[in-house]
Amino acid sequence: MSTKPVRANDPASDAGVARVDMKFEIVVIPVSDVDRAKEFYARLGWRLDADYDSGKDFRVIQFTPPGSGCSIIFGKNVTPAAPGSAQGLYLIVSDIQAARKALLDHGVEISEVFHDSAGVYMGTDEPYLFGRARVSGPDAEHRSYRSFASFHDPDGNGWLFQEITARLPGRIDSAATTFASANDLASAFRRAAAAHGKHEERTGGQRDENWPDWYAAYMVAEQAGADLPQ
Predict the structure, then answer these.
(1) Residues 40 and 97 in one domain
(2) Residues 63-83: pLDDT tens digits?
């Protein structure tokens, strides 16, 4: 979510921390009407993993967004939090316009795409990662981390799409390039193709017979936040 770089070998972040995998797995969403919430999240196209009802005043439902390693849980007697109190839930997408259109096509209300107001953090808009000032439209330079769109479930729990196409250095293991979905992989190919076209222009317009190697190097570097091939 954040655009602030932090060195991976920062002593302050390493002190006293055991090197054990800790995979963020579940977010509990407080809802007032379990069936209504189930219908909403199913309409988003999320995978239904579980719907367990004990028949004794307890029910738990789990959904997973496409391409996500983290799931949500809601139900009856699963959290003391007030319905609608979960806010600032970020869904990372590689193409925010396509993600927004997918929700609209499923009949879900969602804001226009917006970006931040160049470091102006005070304002009257609903708070998000960069403050309370929202400027209509995607980031003018289409920078990673800077374009958003927001929506709410029927109880008012707040979600945001955030467009990320290239990670900051140290955010991704450069030895393990992965794509969460076919759409993410296709988007990465398109960005590599556009960049490769400019590369061929710089080299005199000659066809690059090694374009698969160039594409691969570009896509790995982009995801890892490393210097992109020119």
Answers:
(1) no
(2) 999 989 899 999 999 999 999
